[in-house]
Design brief:
2 domains, Urease, subunit C, domain 1, eight-stranded parallel β-sheet, binds fe (ii) ion, about 400 residues, alpha/beta, globular, 16 strands, binds 5-methylcytosine
Length: about 400
């Protein structure tokens, strides 16, 4: 297959891409725009990019909002309570059906790489067992990483450590955590030591729900970063949410940033989720409850954006469109400056791929897998401004999804 008249991010001019045997065989500069031959795809001067990445979602909980009860306070903590009620009702098929429906929504928006957190604070590990099957059964659509996520704690939940070990033995790719939700600060710290040791011993990646609160005293990201630094594991470790960083004072943050940078860990922010769940204990002025996305980025650290939820006890909306999260995130994080807009798609492509440690399985380079998107606009800036879409998603050299944009007819 050949794609002509493609614009590539951070490059001048037009290009043709040749895809052979599921790989990118050639990327050739075109002196001018050319006619598209039968069987070829015409990017028409719009961007061709690597697929979008969803670095943080909970596929076990999606599409359960209101079952059996709605989260009325809008807090993270009521979300965890409501989910515990729904979790008691999950079955193998229920998890698989909802996860697959949600994966279809992600695929329809150009996502081909997904990291899902799966709640393992369940003595039966029903959700995890189901998700391991989903990972196999959806390989033609996405690459799925499964995080063993202890929603109700590692130290605070009966048998929490053993469940984490068992989840990894059953096939989890990534070790998770939730130190800010453990009963005591000490348990938060020991949970991080435990999960880092487990990841190091088993070769798993790490992605911790870390400091997802407005409490400025929640300072577990320093523990996670230091563990990663000492073990030399920074490239394999992600801190998700870190919303408390939006409430740290600048004196602490300036010291913290030095450690974060030395550690080499990545960050995921879920701006729509956090603007909804955080700030709930404030009156006015009211905090944004989002981590320091622009500041981490400007300090040279790796930060990306995720959806977190689609219609679950924590967040009632969502449709799989990560570009919606990007647009909201750029607003919420004060990132509508010219420079930020020039490279906005980094936050849902290259940066996320780095957080997921995708390495050479990702990216528009000759020899890499023929996974790519044709977008509806010629630049990052114009994708955001026009609220553009992925028009074609190609996986393994074959068209996986094609979107026909809405047609508007003017009568006057
Ligand atoms: N669980 C959690 O602890 N935090 C979240 N944002 C979600 C689930 C969605
Ligand atoms: Fe999450």
């Amino acid at each position: 297959m050949k794609i002509v008249n493609a614009r590539l991010r951070k490059k001048e001019g037009l290009f043709s891409l040749e895809l052979t045997a599921g790989r990118i065989a050639a990327i050739t500069a075109q002196p001018d725009s050319i006619a598209c031959a039968p069987g070829e795809l015409d990017a028409a001067g719009n961007l061709v990019t690597a697929p979008f990445v969803e670095p943080h979602i909970h596929l076990d909980a999606t599409l359960t909002a209101g079952e059996p009860a709605w989260n009325m306070s809008g807090t993270l903590f009521e979300g965890i309570e409501r989910w515990a009620e729904r979790k008691a009702l999950v079955t193998h098929e229920d998890i698989k059906t909802r996860a697959k429906k949600t994966i279809d929504m992600l695929v329809d928006h150009g996502i081909q790489h997904v990291r899902t957190h799966v709640d393992v604070t369940d003595p039966t590990l029903a959700a995890l067992r189901a998700m391991v099957e989903v990972r196999e059964e959806t390989r033609h659509l996405i690459d799925l990483q499964i995080v063993a996520f202890p929603q109700e704690g590692i130290e605070s939940f009966a048998g929490g450590r053993a469940l984490m070990e068992e989840a990894v033995a059953l096939g989890a790719d990534v070790v998770g955590g939730i130190p800010h939700f453990e009963n005591t600060r000490e348990q938060g710290v020991s949970s991080i030591r435990f999960l880092m040791e487990l990841a190091e011993r088993t070769g798993c990646l790490v992605d911790v729900h870390c400091d997802e609160t407005d409490d400025p005293h929640s300072r577990f990201v320093e523990v996670l970063a230091e563990e990663a630094r000492v073990r030399g594991m920074g490239a394999r470790v992600t801190a998700s949410h870190t919303t408390a960083m939006g409430s740290y004072d600048n004196a602490y943050c300036s010291k913290l940033f030095r450690l974060l940078k030395m550690s080499g860990i990545s960050f995921v922010s879920c701006p729509t989720e956090s603007i909804h769940l955080q700030g709930r204990f404030d009156t006015f002025p009211k905090r944004r409850g989002v981590t320091r996305v622009a500041e981490l980025d400007r300090a040279g650290m790796n930060v990306c954006l995720g959806q977190d939820s689609i219609v679950d006890p924590w967040y009632p909306l969502g449709n799989g469109n990560i570009l919606r999260i990007l647009e909201a995130g750029l607003h919420i994080c004060h990132m509508l400056g010219y420079e930020d807009l020039q490279r906005a798609l980094d936050l849902i492509t290259d940066n996320s791929a780095r957080a997921l440690a995708l390495g050479e399985r990702y990216g528009l380079e000759v020899g890499r897998p023929a996974n790519l998107l044709i977008l509806s606009a010629p630049s990052d800036y114009e994708m955001i401004r026009s609220q553009g879409h992925a028009l074609v998603s190609i996986r393994d050299g074959k068209v996986l999804m094609q979107r026909t944009p809405a047609r508007i007819e003017r009568r006057v």
